[in-house]
Design brief:
Blueprint (H helix, E strand, L loop, with lengths): L1 H56 L4 H62 L1
Helix pairs in contact: 1-2
């Protein structure tokens, strides 16, 4: 009786460790992808900022300033669109990671149900 309890406890511990490892790998992959997306967005934004600042530093007369307004509006619009696109990509990665966690949980519960039903089937 004790050996059966010990075997079930060890099996449960092994299953928990495997599921934890898989969940951690999925989380780290998601974090890595999100970090990569954020770094790319930051690099793109920095390049755009520097280009706009360079254009604005070249202005010397009022005509140059009035010509700079449309560029500023385009810059702001592009910045908002880039931030929105990056946010959508990050949301997609987070959703994919959540689906992986759901699959892991579903598989874990299925395995636990089968393990719990196995002794009952043997008794019959």
């Amino acid at each position: 009786m004790y050996s059966q309890f010990q075997k079930q406890s060890l099996d449960l511990g092994k299953q928990f460790a495997e599921q934890s490892y898989k969940a951690q790998v999925a989380a780290l992959k998601g974090i890595s992808e999100i970090q990569s997306l954020q770094v790319k967005a930051l690099e793109s934004q920095a390049k755009s900022n520097l280009a706009f600042v360079a254009d604005s530093l070249e202005t010397r007369e009022i005509q140059d300033v009035t010509a700079l307004w449309p560029k500023g509006i385009d810059f702001a619009r592009d910045s908002v669109e880039a931030a929105y696109a990056a946010g959508q990509e990050i949301l997609g990665v987070a959703q994919k990671a959540a689906e992986q966690f759901g699959d892991l949980t579903r598989n874990s519960l299925k395995a636990a149900n089968e393990a719990a039903a196995a002794p009952a089937k043997k008794a019959r």
